[in-house]
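Project outcomes to date are best conveyed with an example. Our students and postdoctoral researchers have been running inverse folding experiments weekly, and each run begins with a structure described purely in tokens. The record below, which covers 111 residues, was selected by the lab manager from last quarter's runs and is presented without edits.
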């Protein structure tokens, strides 16, 4: 059984890593909007590394539960899961929007 404290600590880790990834993804969009696509891609890489760390934290608990360990839900874990999920979506959408911004810039340069 994982204790509430252990589960909450994973929740805090999810919030921290996913929060850092969220910030990096937003900064990547800002950089792309300013036309700095190299910086945008570097920030997306940073966001992906952070989200991978969050996912690794989550997977440790999922593995314990799959092995039969009893898990108590904590509010911080729910918040961590929510932050992880929404940030994963943000990163996917940021990649798409940055590709679109590159296309727009190329089209504008042709005019």
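After processing, the design step wrote out the following sequence:
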């Amino acid at each position: 059984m994982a204790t509430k404290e252990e589960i909450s600590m994973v929740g805090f880790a999810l919030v921290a890593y996913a929060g850092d990834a969220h910030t990096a993804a937003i900064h990547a969009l800002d950089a792309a909007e300013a036309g700095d696509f190299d910086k945008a891609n570097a920030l997306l890489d940073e966001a992906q590394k952070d989200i991978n760390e969050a996912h690794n934290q989550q997977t440790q608990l999922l593995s314990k539960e799959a092995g039969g360990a009893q898990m108590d839900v904590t509010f911080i874990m729910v918040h961590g899961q929510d932050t992880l999920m929404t940030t994963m979506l943000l990163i996917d959408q940021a990649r798409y929007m940055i590709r679109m911004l590159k296309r727009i810039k190329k089209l504008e340069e042709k005019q």
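Residues 75-110 form the longest helix (36 residues). The helical segments are 4-33, 37-66, 75-110. The training component of this project remains on track.
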